[in-house]
């Protein structure tokens, strides 16, 4: 594998719209030796009702220009081109995210794959979608990304669809709808790599690729009984962006905060690599064909260990060669 740069995600919950915090964050990770920062659309307050807030963008561009870092961007987590609440608005939000990438020169935009049809049912207002709705939603996402791909190409941006992880509430929704637990993956196909590959093949455009989130996949593989390293190998030819952090491959038991779950090693903890049980060296060996950036998505409560996390990751990559 060839890593062009090691990056750190900028925590949207930490920034929370405060540009002074953005400056502090960027200054800190630059000093730690990171090459790029992944910026959150939501934490920067730059998109409102599907449109860029240009005054904010100009202020942020001025701040970003002070650092030697490169940048990638993460679209809002809820954006969903398959099963979102308002499809036209979902497209506008993602298009605005592409426009922001263009404004700051970011070449990668992370977008959580829309192959998750549980959110509406989670409200209790509607039932789970039927089989026809599931098919139509997946096809709708393909068409939307086919339409956005030329726009991304003009902006020199690759939209990178990210795989998902399992949550206890999802199993609860399945149970409440009188479905067996093993059907979760039917309503959350992005837990596995192959459904995303099927979509990428249908989209068939170089400006739509995959963000392989190795931590999400670790939890999903354990929950579904899949082989983690085989799944990594399946994703390898399609990955155009990497997210890494550590966890123990455990499902949560209903507690939401990482601080509550950490003593029990539950769920997507966003730990520094080396703190959990992900076999990074073996996993990186399965990514021999990968060339691109690697983003360390680590929660800001591990601020004191951002440097250690980068050191550990570089060592894991070196050992995998």
Write out key terms for the chains shown.
single chain, 8-stranded parallel barrel, 321 residues, 10 strands, alpha/beta, TIM Barrel, two-stranded antiparallel ribbon
Describe the protein's architecture and organization.
The chain has 321 residues and is of the alpha/beta class. It has a single domain (2-320), classed as Divalent-metal-dependent TIM barrel enzymes (TIM Barrel, Alpha-Beta Barrel), CATH 3.20.20.150. Helices cover 45% and strands 16% of the residues. The chain is built from 15 helices and 10 strands. It has helices at residues 12-15, 19-32, 41-44, 54-64, 87-104, 119-122, 131-154, 168-176, 184-187, 194-203, 214-224, 228-235, 258-261, 280-285, 306-320; strands spanning 2-9, 36-40, 47-48, 51-52, 70-74, 108-112, 158-162, 208-213, 239-244, 291-296. The strands form 2 sheets. Strands 1-2-5-6-7-8-9-10 form an 8-stranded parallel barrel, surrounded by 6 helices. A two-stranded antiparallel ribbon has the order 3-4. A hairpin with a 2-residue loop joins β3 and β4 (51-52). α7 (131-154) packs across α10 (194-203). The longest helix has 24 residues, at 131-154. The chain starts with a strand and ends with a helix.
């Amino acid at each position: 594998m060839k890593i062009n740069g090691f990056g750190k995600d900028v925590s949207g919950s930490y920034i929370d719209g405060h540009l002074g915090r953005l400056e502090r964050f960027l200054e800190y990770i630059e000093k730690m030796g990171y090459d790029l920062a992944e910026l959150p659309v939501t934490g920067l307050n730059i998109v409102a009702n599907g449109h860029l807030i240009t005054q904010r963008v100009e202020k942020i561009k001025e701040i970003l220009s002070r650092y030697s870092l490169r940048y990638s961007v993460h679209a809002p987590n809820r954006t969903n081109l398959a099963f979102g609440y308002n499809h036209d608005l979902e497209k506008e939000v993602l298009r605005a995210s592409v426009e922001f990438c263009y404004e700051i020169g970011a070449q990668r935009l992370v977008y959580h794959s829309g192959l998750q049809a549980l959110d509406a049912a989670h409200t209790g207002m509607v039932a789970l979608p039927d089989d026809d709705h599931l098919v139509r939603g997946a096809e709708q996402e393909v068409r939307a990304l086919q339409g956005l791909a030329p726009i991304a190409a003009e902006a020199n941006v690759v939209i990178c669809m990210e795989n998902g992880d399992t949550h206890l509430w999802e199993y609860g929704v399945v149970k409440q709808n009188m479905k067996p637990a093993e059907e979760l993956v039917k309503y959350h196909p992005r837990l596995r790599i192959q459904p995303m590959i099927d979509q990428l093949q249908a989209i068939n455009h170089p400006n739509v690729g995959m963000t392989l989130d190795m931590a999400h996949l670790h939890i999903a593989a354990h929950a579904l009984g899949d082989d983690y390293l085989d799944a990594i190998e399946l994703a390898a030819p399609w990955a155009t962006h990497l997210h890494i952090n550590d966890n123990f491959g455990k499902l949560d038991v209903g507690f939401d905060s990482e601080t509550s779950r950490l003593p029990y090693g539950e769920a997507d903890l966003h730990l520094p690599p080396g703190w959990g049980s992900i076999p990074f060296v073996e996993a990186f060996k399965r990514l021999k064909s990968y060339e691109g950036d690697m983003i360390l998505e680590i929660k800001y409560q591990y601020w004191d260990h951002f440097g250690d996390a980068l050191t550990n990751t570089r060592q894991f990559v070196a050992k995998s060669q």
